[in-house]
Design a protein that fits this description.
alpha+beta; 954 residues; disordered C terminus; flat
Length: 954
C-alpha cells in the first residue's frame, strides 16, 4: 500500500508541481531582492549627490548675499546692513558645517576646507579691519584690503560651485538613466520567468492528459460498447499506479459480468412471468389506499364540523362550515343553508339574487311539505345544468328542516345533485347532522342571550354614579364598575380581574386619610359570619380631597353568604354645599352685623347726645364708611347671584387697560403705606371688555393686595404681552398664602383659616366674582404665592383681533426701563405709549420717595420727573436725592415741567434735559434713545416747537 502511494498519480503530480513552483519562486525572489538592492544603492547615491548640489547652491547664495550686505555697509554705512551681513556669515558657517557632515570626496573637501579657512580669516581679520576703515572713512585702506585676495578666494569658490553643479547635473541624469535601464531589465526578466512558468504548467497539463485522461477515455469506450451489446476487447494497462489498478479491476469486472449474464437472463424471464400478478395486486392496493384516504378525509371533515358545532359561537361560521361539509362529503353541485330566525345563509353554486328568489318563492311550499317530516327528496329534469349531455338529465333535490321545541323552522337546507340521486342512507346521515345543528343553534342563542344580559348589566352598573365592588366568599375582589376607577385607584387591571384580599384592601386603605379604620371596616364587612349591612365614611386626598360614603351588604344564597357588595358614593359636593351654607350664614351674620352695629351705635350717640361738630363729623364719616361697606357686601351678593343665574349683562367696548389701571390706582393714592408701582412693558394694551366689570376686578385685586399687606409695602402692577394676550400681574408684599390653600381661593365664601387673615375679615366672594368676570371675557386668572413672602395675582385677557400681531422691539424681558414720575395721569399715559412704541419699558410712580427707591432697585435708562409732585417733596427734591446717592447719581434725569426753566437755572446742571410743557412726546423718545446710546448731555432745554436753545453750563 505504501509502495502504491509513493508511485501514485497524486504523489507524482504533487511532487512535480511543488518542485516547479519552488524553483520559479526562488528565481523570482532572487531576482527581486537583487534588483531591489541595486535600486536602493542608486537611490542613496542620487540623494547624496542631490543634497551636495543643494548645499553648494546654498553656500554660493549665502556667500553672494554676505558680500552684498557688506558692500551695502561700505557704501552707506548702514548698521542694519552690517547686522544682516553678520547673520549671513553665521548662516554660511552653519552651511559649511553641514556640508562637512556629508560623505565628500577628497577633491570635494579641498575647496570646502579652503572656504572654511577663508571665512575664519575674513571674520577675524579682514571684516573687522574693513569695518574700522569704513567707520574711519579710510577708503584707500578698504581698497587695499579688497586687493589682498578676498575677492579672488570668493571667485574661486563660486567657480568651483558652478563647475560642481554642472558635473552633478550630468551625474544625476546618468543615475536616472541607469535606474530606468535596471527597471526595464527587471521587467524583462520577470516576463521571461512568467513565460517559463506557463510552459512548465502546460507541460504538466499535457503529461496529465496523457497519463490520466487517455486511459479513462479507453475505459469509457469499452463500457459504451459493452452496454450496446457489442464485443469488448479491453486490454488492461501495465501500470502500478491507481489507473493501473482501476484498469485491472475494470477488466475483471467485465469478465465477471460475462460469466453471470446467462444466469441473469434466466432470472429476468421468471420475473416477467410474475409481473402480471404483481400488477393486479398493486391495483387492488391502490384502490384500498384510495378508499382509506377518502375515509380519512371524510373523518377529518367530520371532525372539523363536529368541532365547529361544539364550540363555535358564530352562526354564519356554523352555516358556512355545515354547507361546506355537505359539499365535500356528499359531492353536491349546489346548495343553500338558511337560518330564517336570524337571517344568516350559506350558498354553494348560488348567487345572492338566486337565493332571494328561492327564499321568496319556494319557502311557503317547502314549509308546507316539511310539516311533520324532517326531509324529502324530489327529482326534476335538468335544463341549463345538463351542459352538452345528449338526452334527458335529472337533478335530485334534497330538502330538510331543523325545528325547535315549538316546531318552528330554525334552519332550512336544500342540496342538489346533477345526474345522481340521494340514497336513504345519505338522507338519514344528513338528518342526523341537522339534529346536531339544532343543538348548536340553541347553544349559540343561549350564549347570545347571556352575553346580551351581561352587557346590559355591565352598562347599567358602569354608568351609575356609585362605585360598586363585588367581593367573593374568600375575600377576593372579582368585579367592580368603571366608576370605581374614577373614584379610587384600582390599578391597571381589567374590571373583572381577580385581586386577592390582602392586596385590594391594603391598596384601598392606603388611599384614605385613616388607613387603620378603613382596614377594620373592610375586614368586618367581608367576614363570613357577618350578615348585616354596614356603613362608613372616609376621605381621599388624591388627586384632590373627596369625602366618600361606603355601604356594604351581604349576598346570601340558601342561607349561606356567598359574597359582599360594596357601594361607594362621593358626597364631597353635598359636604361642600353644607359647608358653604354654614359659611354663608356665619359670614353674613358677622360681616353684616359688624357694620350695622357701628351704624346703629353712632346713630344713637348722635340722636341722644349733644356732640362737638368735629366729633359729629367723625361719627358721620364712620357711619358713611360702614354704610358703604354694607353696600359693597350687598352688591357682592347681588353680583354673584346674577352671575350664577346667567342674568349678568356685559357691555363690551374697546378699552385701554393701562388707562384703566392708572385710573384705579389713583383711587388708592391716599394709601401712604402701600405705594402703587406701575410697570408697563406691553406694546399693546387694547382689549374688548366691560369697563365697569373690569374696573370691579382691578378694585378688588388691588384692594386685596393692600388689605392683606397689613405691614405696608409696594403694590406692583405689571403689564406685558404674552402671545395673543395681555398679561396683568398684581404683586404685594403681604402675608402670603399657604400652598395647600391656593387652589381653594376662587371658591365662594372661601377664606384662609389662620389667625392673621381672620383679623382682616371679608366675605370670601371677591376672587370668585373676579374669576367669573375674567372667564366671561375669555380670559384666565390664577394665583402665585408663598406664605410670608407676598402674593401675585395674574390674569390674561385676549387682545383685539386687529392688534394681535404686535411687535415687541427688544423682547418682553429685555426692554430698557424708563421711570416716569408724574402726577398728571393723562400725560403719564401719553408719555408711556410713546416710549413703549419705541421699545422702552415704563415704570410709573407718583411718589418721590418711592421713585427714589425704584431708582436704586432698577437699572434705569433714565428718569422723567415732574417738578410739581406733592406737598412734601418736589421733583427737584427727588433730583437732589438721586444725585447725592452713589447708586443713583449716574442715572440721567429729564425734567418734564410747565415752569420756566430760567428760575431754576442753577439746578439745571444736575440734569440731562429739561422738557418744557407742552412738548411733543416724540421729543422724549429722541432724548431716551440718545441716553440709551450713551450720548449724555447736561442741561439741554427744549421749548415747545423749538430746537435746544440753552445749555446749563453757559
Amino acid at each position: 500500500m505504501r509502495n502504491l502511494s509513493e508511485k501514485g498519480i497524486r504523489h507524482k503530480y504533487l511532487r512535480l508541481t511543488f518542485s516547479s513552483l519552488l524553483i520559479c519562486s526562488l528565481l523570482i525572489a532572487g531576482i527581486y531582492f537583487y534588483m531591489n538592492k541595486q535600486q536602493e544603492e542608486q537611490l542613496v547615491e542620487y540623494t547624496e549627490l542631490l543634497e551636495k548640489q543643494e548645499k553648494l547652491k546654498e553656500l554660493s547664495g549665502s556667500l553672494n548675499q554676505l558680500f552684498f550686505r557688506i558692500r551695502g555697509f561700505y557704501s552707506f554705512q548702514n548698521e542694519r546692513e552690517l547686522g544682516l551681513a553678520y547673520a549671513e556669515l553665521n548662516k554660511l558657517k552653519d552651511t559649511v558645517e553641514g556640508m562637512n557632515r556629508l560623505s565628500l570626496t577628497a577633491e570635494e573637501r579641498e575647496p570646502i576646507a579652503d572656504l572654511s579657512a577663508f571665512l575664519e580669516t575674513y571674520e577675524s581679520e579682514v571684516l573687522p579691519n574693513s569695518i574700522a576703515a569704513v567707520r574711519a572713512e579710510d577708503y584707500a585702506r578698504l581698497r587695499q584690503l579688497s586687493r589682498d585676495g578676498t575677492n579672488a578666494a570668493v571667485n574661486e569658490f563660486v567657480a568651483f560651485a558652478d563647475e560642481y553643479e554642472t558635473t552633478s547635473e550630468a551625474g544625476l541624469r546618468q543615475l536616472n538613466e541607469d535606474i530606468l535601464n535596471d527597471a526595464e531589465n527587471f521587467a524583462f526578466v520577470l516576463t521571461l520567468l512568467f513565460v517559463l512558468l506557463f510552459v512548465v504548467i502546460a507541460l504538466i497539463i499535457l503529461r496529465a492528459l496523457n497519463d490520466i485522461v487517455k486511459p479513462l477515455e479507453g475505459m469509457r469506450e469499452s463500457i459504451e460498447g459493452f452496454v450496446g451489446g457489442g464485443e469488448v476487447a479491453y486490454k488492461p494497462l501495465a501500470r502500478s499506479d491507481e489507473l493501473g489498478v482501476l484498469s485491472m479491476t475494470f477488466h475483471n469486472m467485465i469478465q465477471t459480468i460475462r460469466e453471470n449474464q446467462e444466469e441473469l437472463t434466466t432470472q429476468n424471464q421468471a420475473l416477467l412471468l410474475n409481473k402480471g400478478e404483481l400488477q393486479a395486486k398493486q391495483a387492488e392496493l391502490e384502490e384500498s389506499l384510495e378508499e382509506t384516504e377518502k375515509a380519512k378525509e371524510r373523518l377529518i371533515r367530520y371532525n372539523d364540523l363536529n368541532h365547529i358545532l361544539s364550540f363555535t359561537l358564530d352562526k354564519q361560521k356554523l352555516a358556512d362550515a355545515t354547507l361546506r361539509y355537505f359539499k365535500d362529503a356528499y359531492e353536491i353541485d349546489s346548495g343553500v343553508l338558511w337560518l330564517p330566525k336570524t337571517g344568516e345563509f350559506a350558498l354553494e353554486g348560488f348567487t345572492e339574487d338566486m337565493f332571494l328568489q328561492f327564499r321568496d318563492e319556494r319557502t311557503p311550499y317547502l314549509t308546507e311539505r316539511l310539516k311533520g317530516r324532517e326531509s324529502f327528496v324530489m327529482q326534476r329534469e335538468a335544463h341549463h345544468e345538463k351542459g352538452i349531455a345528449m338526452g334527458k338529465v335529472y337533478i335530485s333535490d334534497l330538502y330538510a328542516s331543523v325545528k325547535n321545541e315549538a316546531q318552528e323552522n330554525i334552519a332550512l337546507i336544500g342540496l342538489s345533485r346533477v345526474g345522481r340521486t340521494f340514497s336513504k342512507e345519505e338522507e338519514l346521515d344528513i338528518s342526523g347532522l341537522l339534529n346536531r345543528i339544532h343543538l348548536a343553534i340553541d347553544r349559540i342563542q343561549l350564549y347570545d342571550a347571556a352575553i346580551h344580559e351581561r352587557t346590559l348589566n355591565e352598562r347599567i352598573i358602569n354608568n351609575i354614579n356609585e362605585g360598586i365592588q363585588f367581593i367573593s366568599k374568600n375575600g377576593n375582589m372579582v368585579q367592580r364598575n368603571q366608576t370605581m376607577y374614577t373614584m379610587l385607584d384600582c390599578g391597571d387591571v381589567p374590571l373583572d380581574a381577580n385581586i386577592e384580599q390582602e392586596i385590594w384592601i391594603h391598596a384601598m386603605a392606603e388611599q384614605t386619610t385613616a388607613p387603620e379604620a378603613m382596614l377594620a371596616f373592610l375586614r368586618k364587612c367581608i367576614d363570613g359570619k357577618n350578615f348585616t349591612s354596614n356603613a362608613f365614611q372616609y376621605t381621599v386626598n388624591e388627586p384632590y380631597e373627596r369625602v366618600i360614603d361606603v355601604y356594604s351588604t351581604s349576598v346570601v344564597v340558601d342561607k349561606e353568604k356567598t359574597g359582599t357588595i360594596f357601594v361607594h358614593r362621593d358626597v364631597t359636593r353635598e359636604r361642600e354645599v353644607d359647608k358653604m351654607k354654614s359659611e354663608l350664614v356665619s359670614t353674613v351674620s358677622h360681616e353684616l352685623r359688624t357694620p350695622l352695629s357701628s351704624v346703629l351705635g353712632f346713630t344713637e350717640l348722635l340722636l341722644n347726645k349733644q356732640l362737638k361738630p368735629e366729633k359729629q363729623e367723625r361719627y358721620l364719616k364712620t357711619i358713611y364708611k360702614e354704610a358703604r361697606r354694607l353696600t359693597n357686601l350687598i352688591n357682592d351678593f347681588l353680583d354673584l347671584q346674577r352671575m350664577e343665574s346667567g342674568n349678568q349683562v356685559y357691555r363690551m367696548d374697546k378699552l385701554s387697560m393701562s388707562e384703566m389701571i392708572i385710573e384705579t390706582a389713583e383711587k388708592f393714592r391716599t394709601q401712604m403705606t402701600h405705594p402703587i408701582v406701575l410697570i408697563d412693558d406691553a406694546s399693546d394694551v387694547i382689549v374688548e371688555g366691560d369697563r365697569e366689570r373690569l374696573a370691579q376686578v382691578l378694585m378688588n385685586l388691588i384692594g386685596n393686595a393692600i388689605k392683606f399687606s397689613p405691614q405696608g409695602g409696594n403694590v406692583a402692577i405689571s403689564l406685558r404681552n404674552d402671545s395673543k394676550n395681555l398679561h396683568v400681574s398684581i404683586q404685594d408684599q403681604g402675608i402670603g398664602i399657604p400652598a395647600e390653600d391656593i387652589s381653594k381661593l376662587f371658591s365662594k365664601f372661601q377664606r384662609i383659616d389662620n389667625s392673621s387673615r381672620r383679623k382682616i375679615g371679608g366675605t370670601g366672594l371677591g376672587l370668585a366674582i373676579c374669576q367669573e368676570i375674567i372667564q366671561k371675557h375669555d380670559g384666565t386668572i390664577w394665583i402665585e404665592s408663598e406664605e410670608g413672602q407676598g402674593t401675585a395675582i395674574h390674569f390674561e385677557l385676549p387682545l383685539l383681533s386687529e392688534t394681535v400681531e404686535y411687535t415687541n422691539h427688544e423682547g418682553t424681558e429685555g426692554n430698557p426701563p424708563v421711570m416716569i414720575v408724574e402726577d398728571d395721569m393723562s400725560l403719564a399715559l401719553l408719555l408711556s405709549e410713546e416710549l413703549k412704541q419705541n421699545g422702552f419699558k415704563v415704570i410709573y410712580h407718583t411718589s418721590p420717595q418711592e421713585a427714589f427707591k425704584e431708582a436704586k432697585r432698577s437699572p434705569l435708562v433714565g428718569a422723567v420727573v415732574d417738578i410739581m409732585l406733592g406737598e412734601e417733596l418736589s421733583g427737584w427734591d427727588l433730583v437732589d436725592m438721586m444725585k447725592k446717592d452713589a447708586e443713583t447719581k449716574d442715572i440721567p434725569i429729564v425734567i418734564s415741567s410747565a415752569l420756566d426753566p430760567v428760575a431754576d437755572v442753577q439746578k439745571i446742571t444736575k440734569i440731562s434735559h429739561y422738557l418744557t410743557k407742552p412738548y411733543a412726546p416724540v421729543d422724549l423718545s429722541k432724548v431716551m434713545k440718545k441716553l440709551l446710546d450713551g450720548q449724555h448731555e447736561s442741561g439741554v432745554i427744549f421749548y415747545p416747537e423749538k430746537e435746544p436753545v440753552l445749555d446749563g453750563d453757559n
